[in-house]
């Protein structure tokens, strides 16, 4: 099973319009030139959401913290901390700022950000425990229509613990990131103004996917974005959807530990992706949810905006729907990216609904 497939990151050569905010998705503007202060501002602004999410997280206090107190757990957390702090010292300072600004412990913040890298070792020890990884769905096409649709799904405890971060960089560039409370921007999706897995597929103490995702937000072009995600010492696998509006390209990158990766450029054939590897040859769990969603997507048309949004809002499969409404997993929002129109839209409700535009947030991705 592909770990953290829900992440969709967008490396875009564009200028970002004024920051958007709404009741269901609050936002903050920060200066990213001082990493610690940036994290502290985020922690201060959203300390209520961060503490609330921690209190409702089904794994933090019941599994992650108890495991971190064991000898094996402490060694794993120390190894993850050392490798990620060494490679990404600026983002490590951001995490420290988030913890200090929200008046939470650094360990709790670390465990939220490293949960995908730690949970496989806990579930390996306790076979009767079930780890509910996030489940996301993507559709991409690049023909007469160049577009990407994405359902951002997560454990139901994450619902109402989300916000947007708009960060200004010292180079007069900026990025916008959909952020889960307590985590680095952004393990979900974002765009910038530059242009449970098998245990033997996890490397203990490797680079965490939240740090890679944060680094991706500062990539300056498609080539740099690809370099960001193709690391040799990744801890777990990941899937990235990356697009560049200037070159009119959309790619899906599947990565795995030990330097394995595969890049697929999207063409005229619609490409659907759930939580399993599609083009990287790797052993994986046959995830029932992913299999069901792939089967349902294969039966539905996906060549136009309405068809793709209808697919992402589909609930026909009662056990494993594409659009999730609990009790364990919930679709937080749906993203629609029109590369040619240079617009990104976030829908808070079911994207197949005729009412979808009423609560939508629209970002203009105007080329420089």
From TrEMBL:
Coiled-coil boundaries: none
Bilayer-crossing residues are: none
What residues does the Peptidase C45 hydrolase domain cover? Answer: 147-352
Question: Which Gene3D superfamilies did the record assign?
Answer: Penicillin V Acylase, Chain A
On the tree of life, the source organism's domain of life is Eukaryota
- Return the protein name: Peptidase C45 hydrolase domain-containing protein
Q: Species name for this entry?
A: Ceratopteris richardii
